Amino acid sequence: MAATALTAHSASAAVGPGRGDPAVGAGRPRRSELLARVINVADLGAAGDGRTDDSAAFELAYTLAASRVTRGVGRTVIEIPAGEFLITRPNALLDGVAPLRPANGLRFAGAGKRMTTIVFRPPTGPGSFLCRNEDIWSNLGFERMQFRSATPGASFFSSYSTGQAQDYRFTECEWMGEWEFGLALDGTDTNSEMRWEACRVGGAYRRAFLYSGLSRRGQTDPNDQDQFLNYWFNDMKVEYEWGNFLEFPYGGSINCRGGSYIVTGTRPESTPEYGTTSTFFRFPVARHHDSVQRFHAQDIRFEVRNPDARIIDCEWKSGTVHFSDCDDTGLAFKDFAPELRAHRYTVGPRGPLIRYDSCQLVGRHEYRAADREEPLQAVARYDMCLLRSHPEDDFVVAQGTTRGAGPVTFVGCLDGTVDREATPGQPDRPGPATPQAPSTPDAPDAARQPAAPVPPASPAPPAGGAPPVSGGR
User: Fold this and answer.
1) pLDDT (tens digit, 9 = 90+) per residue, 96-134?
2) Helices (DSSP H) in 205-348: which residue ranges?
3) DSSP letter string over 286-301?
4) Which of 48, 356, 396, 435 is exposed most, by the fewest CB atoms within 10 A?
5) Contacts of 471 (CB under 8 A, 6+ apart)
6) Conformational region of residue 112, where left means phi above 0, alpha means psi within -120 to 50, and beta covers everything else
7) Is the Cα torsion angle 393, 394, 396, 401 positive or negative in sign?
8) Would you say the C-alpha torsion 64, 106, 224, 370 has a positive or negative sign?
9) What angle do CA 205, 149, 280 make, to 5 degrees?
10) Per the omega criterion (within 30 degrees of 0), is the bond before 352 cis?
């Protein structure tokens, strides 16, 4: 990985054969200096034809970029043109391990989502990662490319941190194929400040697309892995076959805003940990040190296509969960929809504090007591929500002891059951109006009916005239 390991041919290939080194103007950097900041894998021999193994070209591109780190700062862009690039060796795209010293700044740039495709086909899937970063790189960028697993159970990125691995950016990227992990985060500190913008998460995941707290390496207590902070997913298209999208056993601050979230199928086989269930947001560990536990989903359309899909399954005993302007009623007309329990919580005396604002919700929400000897606390509030399948008094499924008002407070919510369809196959047709007392056929107009006797103090006004004047005026 060191610069001394590079041959003269490798160094010249990064600049490009026959390009020379002319000056580009007085006081400006020489062309070789400018080109040295961009490494195009095609110049290093990558074929991009989907058949040739391009592992060596990508390994060389990364080695060149790592060798150009100066005073802890990297200023190199690895450019990947349009094409389908086959990689068969693990860690060929990025291999951030010692003896390389900590570095800040490396970017991988493609020609466009589905224009630049990296196909990862290692000999075996589980345990094979396309990228790894062990406390070396921060400020990593990936943009405008697709990653596809051609070996079921391979993984995209392994990131271990005790304070250095952080600040990752993914822009207009896509993941396809069957993965074990998308990104697997590990370590005791940081692994934070990560952002996904206008990306598509497709394929399938044996564990999760983003998983925090992979192992206990270097820790005697699993709660040492609590510093997983600040993850943003903006304008996403999350449409994958099965598996979990986000799984955070050890806390974290997660923000998902905008986009469409769909699980299109079910797990091909039941597993001891997940059964056949796929979950967008799974937070399965209750006890933490006083680290951040915060989840916020806003402006998202969820599509629940089968009873094995869940939106959230949260066991946090503190922190906050907030859904704002979200809608999961797109398939509310399906036979299974009224009995869905796509939102599930285990709560304790400190929460988590749960809030739904201006959401449209299908099925029922389930609340379980962390300690069955204790009552369920009032920790959840639903403001101005449409309860599509059940009225307020039948919306919550509470498991454990309940006393008092239970875990949920409703404020200004609407009962969506009054709009349920009257005709099968027409889910959007409004329901019938409230029945009225039938009128007698051919009855004369009420205005022409003989007036019933009324007390003198309340005479009926004459037709077309002013009301009578009271005798006391």
Assistant:
1) 998 999 999 999 999 999 999 999 999 999 999 999 999
2) none
3) ---SS--EEEEEES-E
4) 435
5) none
6) left
7) positive
8) negative
9) 20
10) yes
